[in-house]
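Sample A.
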Amino acid sequence: MISERVHRTIAVILGAVLMVGFGILDGHHVVEYIHWEALGLIFGMFILVAALSESGFFRWVGLETLKLTKFNVFYVFIFFCVLAGFLAAFMDSITVMIFMASLTVEICLILKMPPIPFLIAEICSANIGGSATMVGDPPNIIIGTSLNFSFMDFVTHTGPIAVMVFLINITLFYFWYKKIFVGGKKDLEKIYHEHKELEPFTAIKDLRLMRISLAVFVFTVTLLVLHQILDLLIAFVGILGGTLVLLFGGKKMPGLVEKIDWHTILFLAGLFVMVGGLEQVGILSDIASGIASVSNGNILITVTLILWVSAICSSVLDNVPFAAAMVPVLRNLEATGLPLPAMAWSLALGADIGGNATPIGASANVVGLAVAEKHGIKVTWKEYCKVAYPIMIICIIAINILIYFLVSSGIW
């Protein structure tokens, strides 16, 4: 996976097959290691997001946001970062960055602005926004479903921290790139006359599908919020939402299933098998013992270790496999008497926000920069890391301070 010589899905499937082939896992029981609840939720949300994308919802939101800014460069920057962060809290950040990157490059060319500052800031905003809820980022889905946390557990614990870190992040980006925000008033009538495609109504491909998808999406999120009260499985809620869209969405729906990111679903299934193998032979319990030994049972030291190790590892490795491997480690640490919630929130924040640091730290980074490259905008590692890495470190320091206060005061 790190070498990028083969696709990550192929690499993980090979690893899962070898786990069985070498007798590390029993082939008759290998499916028991796959976390079906996480896959069910992801599958359902993928269908919902694909339907919204097919209807033109994302571009419509982007163009409406652009209209609100009146093409003021500073407002465009702020609003686009807020939009990326907000949407990524409830939807797949990959889809969010596909449409955000395309729209950003298009708008920056019209405004004669360099698109790279906008792109990097939006990527970081999407990853921070994704840390706020259980469905925002795949690591959160894995952590939440594996450790039995609810949607509202994430909203009330990681959500406020995500909002504060978002404000820190966007402020730092503003001061880093403040020279580009100096610009005169734009002639709105001239822009809209020359670029008819920027009128929001032109983005809507299927109004009926958009209305149905939004209604089902709101219904699904409501059930996710209430799933513990209603005693519903999270996977059932996700699949129910996806099924309702397929049922009422119209004739395009069978083709929509083919557009789902099946690579990610297969990747996660194979990954759960790989993690099961590591757990089976005791490697993950050894890691937990090592952390417990270093921290000497001190929860403040433990959460600090988890936060920083998660952030640094996620900056160079895909944060999804890292989070999946760490879940059993947290269970083993809990067995030593350490409180699980504080460790889980530290893992989620570290894995999600640590991914901001490099172009490969999270899926949103890879996809957003790939879309930009298709439009002729090449972002080098040096160009990305010189701004994103120090800002990520400052954000993690801020999170560490907040976590220290929350844990020591007993709030977490």
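Sample B.
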Amino acid sequence: MKLRTFLGTLLLSAGLVGEVAAQQSTRRSYDNRLKPITNAKPLLADHPEFIEPVRLKARFEAPMLVDDADADLHVRAWRFSYNARGIIEMPNRLRARETAVVMVHPWGIDDGQGWQTPEPAGVCDFGWPDKNHLAAKHTRKVINPFLKSLRGKAAFIMYSLPGPEDAIRKKVYRSVNGKPSKTERATGLEELKAKLASFSYKAQPIPDKLSLSRDTPVIDYFKQFSGIDAGPRYNGAGFWELPIPVCADIDADPDDVVIYDAAGYAPLRDFLKKHGVRHVLLTGYATDMCFCRTTAGYENLSRDFNVFLVGDATLATFPANGDPRFATNAAISYASLNQLVTQVSWITSAK
């Protein structure tokens, strides 16, 4: 009996040793040497109308981080470290077929598809139509060409949208659950158009009278007239239950995949892993909110994948400002504490 137990222990130990050895064989030692970069040019400077360039002069070069065999996609990236007291840049080599390009929340609002910001005081996406049109310009100028350059090379082009996979959008878009036929897509587009057109985009105006106490008028003022209220009062009941389309400023392809927030992160994670995806190039809106915290945001994805934030292919919300330049800079700069940041011009196909 003792001999049998002893032999069992030996076999178990051998198995554990083998498992540890297998894990070690998939790891490598990374030489974290930081070489100062002199006369470095500003980062994220290709589209200064959308994001204020990052101009910190304390910059370092680190060795290659991601180094895939047979890589066909070069992605230079950077992060910020208080401990290193500067920005650290490093090259990366990725397999495109193991890379997904994800666009967070390309809402089709005020773009002619029928979903509109309610009047006279409704709030949606970046605020009201003028701000939404500015974001649409960014989509057309920066994100759409980037998606087109990688379609057919990357494993997937993907978009995340609010809500569940409702009956209408299930006919319009491919998802992690399946792909509609050409006939289903045509039917779904007609149903989407009719559904969005049937809603009344009229709601209440801002209040012209408030009831304030003598002791705490500031508290009462903001309780009755907050800085942002996108609920039924100003947007109308049922506005957020409408099937939000992918924005018309993207030349979407039937093979592109839509992710639905209501399903949660697990289906997205499992879909990507099932198809061998290891890397994610993340684009979309809004840098300070949805881009980080929703289903396809980097707080989720960076737990399971090598994530690269495409810093000039995103916009932050910009309250009290006429453009998003400094807000986007601040949001990306904060994210760079624990995320890698790249830019469209730094993502190139291997020759």
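B remarks: The longest helix spans residues 2-25. The mean pLDDT is 94.
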